[in-house]
Specification:
The complex is a heterodimer of chains A (429) and B (314).
Chain A lengths: L1 E11 L2 E10 L2 E5 L8 E4 L4 E4 L1 E6 L12 H11 L1 E6 L10 H14 L3 E6 L13 H7 L3 E3 L8 H14 L2 E4 L4 H4 L4 E2 L2 H5 L4 E2 L2 H17 L3 E3 L5 H12 L4 E5 L8 H6 L15 H13 L4 E2 L28 H10 L6 H15 L16 E11 L18 E11 L2 E5 L6
Parallel strand pairs in A: 1-4, 1-5, 6-7, 7-8, 8-9, 9-10, 10-13, 11-12, 13-14, 14-15
Antiparallel strand pairs in A: 1-2, 2-3, 5-16, 16-17, 17-18
Chain B lengths: L16 H18 L13 E6 L4 H13 L3 E6 L11 H8 L6 E6 L5 H5 L5 E7 L5 H15 L6 E5 L6 H11 L4 E5 L15 E3 L2 H4 L5 E4 L5 H4 L6 H8 L3 H4 L7 E3 L15 H28 L9
The chains are: A alpha/beta (429), B alpha/beta (314).
The structure holds zinc ion (ZN) (2 copies).
The site of one zinc ion has 5 residues of chain A, from loops.
Chain lengths: 429, 314
């Protein structure tokens, strides 16, 4: 299959050029004038072509809770949101903590073949935080990174072993930073608002204490570490300082941390769709996250896509599980609240959502549009807006605080390895 | 005729000072009614009130039950601890099921803080909060304030002190929001571990020294202390708690002569208050119980009729 994308503005993290882009089979064959006859032409005049987005952090609920999301619905949602590569977290039932599980998942993902699903293996067996899982076998099965996400590694000695042992296989450890003794049964940020309603709060220190410990271990052992879903000002200060001092730490945040605060949670009358972990912070945290994205202290935007069933989100706020769906919203949220709001430019966004994640995870020929790279591309129209309506989401779960919101920027085409895997309704592709 | 606009009574936070005054006026009428030979009014005849208690509380439930009966409503008591809900059945399911009886008012006691607004989405009935976790217990605060007003004649400019486990207390929160609406000054006193985070931002004075607080107070509310707070290290021992925060015959000498000493009950004698003070404290507690009935009649009447006045047509 040969596809010619005509007249688009091609965006990389370091440059925007205008021109044609020619795809042959699964790779980008040529950028510029092309004489070869294509099978298909996409006229992209006035549109932008971006490298396919890469999400380091999704929960696909498979195996175990396929009623909330399965590989098919998750892939469709990802493609619609402009993601061509997603990493799925191992907190499934059973956990992705051994070669057999990972093989099974990749086999199932291969049958669907919409976008590329890559597994994150569990650091410990059963994610119990007791014994290391078989890193070598997980690597062999296709894991590039490991995480016990959902749980922190509470035992510092165990985290030390994990970081050390991961060196042998060049596996990246992704850490969910939370001091569980401090966060305890909290369901929102400890704040005047939690105090006013008598709700158990989570101190902001719960995150930064864990971030600091993890960074100290990475510094001590001279290993890499990646901090998931950073949400507080203090965590960012610690990370920034460590980076300046040469610690090999990278980190991500999620769109809800630069768009919402605990005040929005109160305004929603504490709707469970606003419950996330770590919890929504205050205005200062939100500003710090925006600043961190601008300064480059934060390396990526990941979704922490966490589908939950209607029933689970009908539970009282304090009982409801945390998490929001994000695959279909992340790009438009980021574009609306960061680019449109003139905090970042489009190139920065490409860096945060594609180039950097590809680099951090060592994905070859992804995250940068160039001849010879995988033809993982999206075409976006930034002049149009859309409304978030639950029945229009491809994800099986509809738990998002942005229902009813109007967002800027629409993904019109998603191309994964040379195949058009998503076309916006009404577009001919 | 004054109309009442609120469908639910979920918390004192949401009530205006005027609305609280409407409750007081009604409560006074109903208190008078309760002293007659025929204690019943037909105001809620034909209406169904369900007492839905997910946490047991005989005292509050009994008070609401009698209040509803005095107003001639049909009353159904539905008690179920959340742990005994059958597997997979949720609180929302229970409320949806009760919809089949077309209740007019649900009186709900629940362990989850601040959960009633979301539950109100699943019923067409009015909800009266009978205590939701550590959030609010509005009828308790209304009866406390009503009692203080009855004795002091006003709530304006009083100095109100609340002592004990503020953090976990819905009674404390409702009273704070209530008294503040009448420009009373509020002070809380207890171990720092039991004072909620950033609580001073509510305009509440914070103290850890009961002896210092006692002389200024016009009203003191002692809160019930749960023994399990000790095992989770909010304080090291009951003995130490008693040393610092218990009202005893020595301490009571430091209070104003006309200081009102209240307790939402049941009192842990010799923990919050020394049993030697029983005779001094008891009459007011009994008055609180009596006023509780009148205030609860008022709240049921308001949400059940949407009328802000009661005309005795009998
Ligand atoms: Zn996590
Ligand atoms: Zn996660």
């Amino acid at each position: 299959m040969k596809i010619l994308i005509k007249g688009a503005k091609i965006v990389n993290f370091d440059d925007i050029i205008e021109g044609n882009l020619f795809i042959r089979n699964s790779r980008i064959a040529k950028i510029g004038e092309v004489s070869e006859e294509p099978d298909k032409i996409i006229d992209a005049k006035g549109k932008f072509v971006l490298p396919g987005l890469i999400d380091m952090h999704t929960h696909l609920r498979t195996p175990g809770r396929e009623d909330e999301e399965d590989l098919w619905s998750g892939s469709k949602a990802a493609a619609k949101g402009g993601f061509t590569t997603i990493f799925c977290m191992p907190n499934t039932r059973p956990a992705l903590d051994n070669q057999g599980q990972v093989n099974w998942l990749l086999e199932e993902a291969g049958k669907i073949g919409i976008i590329e699903i890559l597994p994150v293996g569990a650091i410990t067996k059963g994610r119990e935080g007791k014994e290391l899982s078989e890193f070598g076998m997980l690597k062999k099965a296709g894991c590039l990174c490991l995480s016990d996400d959902g749980n922190p590694l509470e035992d510092s000695s165990l985290l030390r072993r994990a970081l050390e042992y991961a060196k042998m296989y060049d596996l990246l450890i992704i850490s969910h930073c939370e001091d569980k003794n401090l966060s305890a049964s909290g369901s929102l940020r400890e704040h005047l608002i939690s105090s006013k309603y008598g709700m158990e709060g989570i101190p902001w220190a719960s995150e930064s204490i864990a971030v600091f410990r993890d960074i100290e271990l990475a510094r001590y052992l001279d290993t890499k570490i990646h901090i998931a879903h950073v949400s507080t000002k203090r965590s960012l200060q610690i990370i920034k300082k460590a980076k300046e001092e040469g610690v090999k730490v990278s980190c991500e945040t999620a769109p809800h941390y630069f768009t919402l605060t605990i005040e929005d949670l109160e305004k929603s009358h504490f709707h469970p769709n606003f419950k996330v972990n770590p919890p929504l912070g205050n205005r200062e945290d939100l500003e710090a996250i925006r600043e961190g994205l601008k300064e480059g202290v934060i390396d990526c935007i990941a979704t922490d896509h966490a589908p939950h069933s209607q029933g689970e989100k009908e539970l009282p706020f304090e009982e409801a599980p945390p998490g929001v769906v994000g695959l279909e919203l992340a790009f438009s949220l980021s574009y609306t609240y960061l680019v449109k709001a003139q905090i970042l430019d489009l190139k920065d966004l490409v860096k945060l959502m594609s180039y950097n994640p590809a680099n951090i995870l060592g994905l070859k020929d992804k995250g940068y549009i160039k001849e010879g790279a995988w033809a993982d591309l999206i075409i976006v129209d930034l002049s149009r807006s859309w409304q978030v309506l639950p029945h229009k989401l491809f994800s099986k779960s509809k738990n998002t605080p942005f229902i009813g919101h109007t967002l800027e920027g629409i993904v019109e085409f998603t191309i994964c390895k040379g195949k058009v895997v998503y076309t916006e309704k009404g577009k001919n592709g | 005729m004054v109309n009442w606009q609120k469908k639910h009574i979920l918390g004192i936070k949401d009530l205006t000072r005027q609305e609280i005054e409407v409750v007081f006026n009604l409560a006074a009428s109903f208190k008078e009614l309760s002293q007659r030979e025929v204690k019943k009014a037909p105001a809620l005849r034909g209406k169904t009130v369900i007492n839905l208690f997910f946490e047991s509380s005989t005292r509050t439930r009994t008070s609401f039950e009698l209040a509803a009966k005095r107003l001639s409503a049909d009353v159904l008591n539905f008690s179920s601890s959340t742990s005994s809900l059958s597997k997979g059945e949720t609180i929302v399911d229970t409320i949806k099921n009760l919809e089949s009886y077309h209740p007019d008012i649900l009186v709900i006691r629940i362990g989850y803080s601040n959960s009633l607004y979301s539950l109100s989405q699943y019923t067409s009935a009015s909800i009266v909060n009978a205590g939701d976790g550590a959030n609010e217990h509005p009828t308790q605060a209304l009866l406390d304030m009503f009692t203080v007003k009855e004795i002091k004649g006003t709530l304006e400019g009083l100095s109100v002190l609340i002592v004990g486990d503020i953090k976990h207390s819905r009674v404390a929160r409702s009273n704070i929001f209530g008294f503040q609406k009448f420009s009373s000054s509020l002070r809380v006193c207890g171990p720092p571990t039991l004072i909620p985070y950033e609580f001073h931002k509510l305009g509440v004075d914070i103290s850890y020294n009961l002896d210092e607080c006692l002389p200024q107070a016009d009203v003191i509310i002692f809160l019930r202390i749960q023994q399990e707070r000790q095992t989770s290290s909010f304080f090291p021992s009951i003995r130490e708690y008693v040393n610092n925060f218990s009202l005893n015959p020595e301490r009571i000498k430091r209070t104003k002569k006309d200081c009102l000493i209240m307790h939402p009950g049941p009192v842990n004698w010799d923990i919050e208050i020394s049993s030697q003070l029983k005779e001094r404290i008891h009459p007011l507690i009994l008055k609180q119980v009596e006023n509780g009935l009148a205030v609860r009649m008022a709240t049921l009447y308001l949400v059940g009729t949407q009328k802000g006045e009661y005309e005795n047509t009998d």
